[in-house]
């Protein structure tokens, strides 16, 4: 397969960037060369000559007719000359120099396309009936959450997950009641006081006891879901002078104490390891830890603990959590990479990466997500320099664009492929649904949580930021089309993309009216849907940043498909075995992240932008919002 990838600066039209930092000379020549004249004139040599003549003529006009009195530097120069002739030469020279001087920064403008898309689907922003429509849709999401919770409460309270068809609970995550903790802050944000009381009192009465007695848990899953959920509940119930949107449930100190107890046990994954890289599994009851049977940890797992551990250090005043977590990232900084891209396994015994498999899907994904998010969390703390995280992120995103991004055939969807045999091998046109976190992360990395409009008004975006934002929008479209190309309107777990080197017939998603039916290939083994959040997460972030209503409409289509095909009458929602056939066979499992992430992001997408603003909160990878910047008590020095 060819390694020349089509996604580069030449593919994107940077409507705003082109107005910035250009000299007058460049503006004249670029305007001429990008207009119709370019096609007509440059195609023949006489035309080229005439074009050059025109530029020359314009330049002469500027030199002879420019206003002499309006420039400070011009006035000063006049005083220096001793005779008229010298003065003229100086004037001409200065005017000539001015042509090549940097133009003052012009205010960035949204392109006509962007202006239209703000109102094109739903009418103008802030029109009362439009707002009413989104309020009603938001209420639908809230009702869905209540329905999901009611099934869980009825049949599986205290278990990790609900099996909504067979009316059972199942402990797939170590038995800490993961759904209760994952769902709690969503209920707080939705203002569902009754659910907050029920979940809060279960946590208060049972969770500590479970933590003290349960056996093996996965370090990463427990950190992102349980620890992350507790920390977010702490803040949202008023801890750390938090926003106290939850009036019901336990006091914040209850959540903090449980979080500390849990984290103290999880720390054994770090202290048992001979390197900075923690083991993957912890035995809670005796605070011991061990590596996975193959001796390896996933790269994403060891690098997706730091937001939680840093915040716990900040609110507990004990630096040990943040210190351990940051040692991992400091260590990862020193390892060799491929244009910032990393293999998906790491060996905690040697501290080295293992194998060559590079991907942004499972086992790789949140490594990239946490580089930028941990930087956002720590960038204003006085205690250390965290620029290396931003540098690692930037390098990695360049690597993504250079090594992994391609366009599909025939309709040119931009997708992120994989390098299963490393940088010298072929690019597999396979994209996990998990990769759909990337559009949101790219957008966040570009504007740092500000709206694009504000970031541009304040001149904060670099050319690279705009390129990343454009890639984010292209990828979000691809992720959305992974849903709309199937018969159910729900995405498969994995999609392949028809490329110039790869095609398989008879493996389409089933929606024959989709423009992308030939671009997206879905293998039989990959046709399940686990109610995953990544696409709606990215739609939410992109909506907040671009204010483009289309992201809300896409989110609504996805929500309607969940309602239609995954809702279980007696309570709860289910994963599916095959999204390409109707009716889709059901899998009898409601993952905790459906309540923790998917419904939370949909609710926020349809709601008011001021709720959990992206420049004041950072969402952990399980959608638990943590406040930024960190307050006093923060001490993240890895060397301590
Ligand atoms: C979640 O647990 C987290 O978002 C994680 O980073 C990836 N997988 C699931 C959701 O799909």
UniProtKB/TrEMBL annotation:
Pathway: Protein modification; protein glycosylation. Signal peptide: none annotated. It catalyses: N(4)-(alpha-D-Man-(1->2)-alpha-D-Man-(1->2)-alpha-D-Man-(1->3)-[alpha-D-Man-(1->3)-[alpha-D-Man-(1->2)-alpha-D-Man-(1->6)]-alpha-D-Man-(1->6)]-beta-D-Man-(1->4)-beta-D-GlcNAc-(1->4)-beta-D-GlcNAc)-L-asparaginyl-[protein] (N-glucan mannose isomer 8A1,2,3B1,3) + 3 H2O = N(4)-(alpha-D-Man-(1->3)-[alpha-D-Man-(1->3)-[alpha-D-Man-(1->6)]-alpha-D-Man-(1->6)]-beta-D-Man-(1->4)-beta-D-GlcNAc-(1->4)-beta-D-GlcNAc)-L-asparaginyl-[protein] (N-glucan mannose isomer 5A1,2) + 3 beta-D-mannose; N(4)-(alpha-D-Man-(1->2)-alpha-D-Man-(1->2)-alpha-D-Man-(1->3)-[alpha-D-Man-(1->2)-alpha-D-Man-(1->3)-[alpha-D-Man-(1->2)-alpha-D-Man-(1->6)]-alpha-D-Man-(1->6)]-beta-D-Man-(1->4)-beta-D-GlcNAc-(1->4)-beta-D-GlcNAc)-L-asparaginyl-[protein] (N-glucan mannose isomer 9A1,2,3B1,2,3) + 4 H2O = N(4)-(alpha-D-Man-(1->3)-[alpha-D-Man-(1->3)-[alpha-D-Man-(1->6)]-alpha-D-Man-(1->6)]-beta-D-Man-(1->4)-beta-D-GlcNAc-(1->4)-beta-D-GlcNAc)-L-asparaginyl-[protein] (N-glucan mannose isomer 5A1,2) + 4 beta-D-mannose. Its cofactor is Ca(2+). It comes from the Eukaryota. Keywords: Calcium, Disulfide bond, Glycosidase, Hydrolase, Metal-binding. It is an enzyme of class 3 (hydrolase). This is alpha-1,2-Mannosidase. Belongs to the glycosyl hydrolase 47 family. InterPro entries: 6hp_glycosidase-like_sf (IPR012341), Glyco_hydro_47 (IPR001382), Glycosyl_Hydrolase_47 (IPR050749), Seven-hairpin_glycosidases (IPR036026). Pfam families: Glyco_hydro_47. Gene3D superfamilies: 1.50.10.10. PANTHER family: ENDOPLASMIC RETICULUM MANNOSYL-OLIGOSACCHARIDE 1,2-ALPHA-MANNOSIDASE, MANNOSYL-OLIGOSACCHARIDE ALPHA-1,2-MANNOSIDASE-RELATED. Its EC number is 3.2.1.-.
């Amino acid at each position: 397969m060819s390694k020349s990838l089509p996604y580069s600066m030449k593919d994107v039209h940077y409507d705003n960037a082109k107005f910035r930092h250009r000299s007058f000379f460049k503006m004249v020549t670029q305007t001429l060369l990008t207009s119709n004249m370019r096609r007509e004139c440059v195609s023949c040599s006489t035309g080229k000559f005439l074009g050059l003549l025109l530029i020359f003529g314009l330049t002469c006009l500027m030199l002879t007719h420019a206003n002499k009195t309006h420039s400070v530097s011009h006035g000063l120069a006049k005083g220096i000359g001793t005779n008229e002739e010298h003065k003229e030469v100086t004037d001409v020279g200065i005017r000539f120099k001015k042509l090549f001087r940097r133009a003052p920064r012009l205010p960035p403008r949204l392109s006509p396309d962007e202006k239209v898309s703000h109102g094109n689907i739903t009418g103008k922003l802030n029109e009362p009936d439009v707002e009413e429509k989104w309020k009603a849709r938001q209420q639908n999401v809230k009702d869905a959450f209540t329905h999901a919770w009611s099934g869980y409460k009825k049949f599986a309270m205290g278990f990790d997950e609900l099996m909504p068809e067979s009316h059972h609970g199942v402990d797939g995550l170590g038995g800490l009641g993961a759904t209760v903790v994952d769902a709690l802050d969503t209920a707080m944000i939705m203002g569902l006081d009754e659910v907050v009381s029920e979940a809060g009192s279960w946590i208060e009465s049972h969770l500590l006891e479970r933590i003290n007695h349960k056996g093996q848990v996965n370090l990463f899953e427990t950190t992102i879901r349980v620890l992350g959920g507790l920390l977010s509940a702490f803040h949202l119930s008023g801890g750390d002078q938090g926003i106290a949107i939850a009036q019901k449930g336990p006091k914040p100190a209850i959540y903090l104490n449980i979080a500390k107890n849990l984290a103290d046990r999880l720390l054994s994954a770090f202290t048992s390891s001979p390197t900075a890289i923690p083991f993957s599994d912890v035995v809670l009851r005796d605070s011991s830890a061990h590596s996975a049977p193959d001796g390896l940890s996933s790269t994403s797992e060891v690098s997706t603990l730091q937001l939680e551990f840093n915040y716990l250090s900040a609110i507990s005043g004990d630096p040990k959590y943040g210190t351990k977590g940051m040692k991992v990232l400091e260590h990862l900084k020193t390892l060799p990479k491929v244009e910032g891209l990393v293999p998906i396994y790491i060996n905690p015994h040697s501290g080295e990466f293992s194998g060559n498999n590079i991907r942004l899907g499972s086992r790789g994904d949140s490594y990239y997500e946490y580089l930028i998010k941990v930087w956002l969390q720590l960038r204003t703390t006085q205690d250390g320099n965290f620029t290396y995280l931003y540098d690692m992120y930037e390098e990695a995103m360049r690597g993504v664009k250079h090594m992994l991004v391609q366009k599909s055939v025939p309709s040119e969807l931009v997708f992120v492929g994989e390098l299963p045999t490393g940088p010298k091998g072929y690019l597999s046109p396979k994209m996990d649904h998990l990769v759909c976190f990337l559009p949101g992360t790219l957008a966040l990395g570009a504007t740092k949580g500000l709206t694009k409009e504000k970031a541009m008004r304040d001149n904060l975006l670099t050319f690279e930021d705009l390129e990343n934002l454009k890639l984010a929008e292209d990828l979000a479209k691809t992720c959305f089309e992974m849903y709309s190309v199937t018969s159910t309107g729900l995405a498969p777990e994995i999609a392949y993309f028809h490329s110039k080197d790869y095609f398989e017939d008879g493996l389409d998603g089933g929606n024959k009216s989709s423009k992308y039916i030939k671009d997206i290939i879905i293998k039989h083994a990959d046709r399940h849907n686990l109610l995953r959040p990544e696409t709606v997460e990215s739609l939410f972030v992109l909506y907040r940043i671009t204010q483009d209503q289309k992201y809300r409409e896409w989110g609504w289509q996805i929500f309607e498909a969940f309602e239609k095909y995954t809702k279980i009458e007696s309570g709860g929602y289910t994963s599916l075995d095959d999204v390409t056939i109707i009716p889709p066979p059901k899998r009898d499992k409601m993952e905790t992240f459906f309540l923790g992430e998917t419904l939370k992001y949909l609710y926020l997408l349809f709601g008011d932008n001021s709720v959990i603003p992206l420049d004041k909160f950072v969402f952990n990878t399980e959608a638990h919002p943590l406040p930024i910047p960190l307050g006093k008590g923060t001490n993240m020095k890895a060397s301590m």
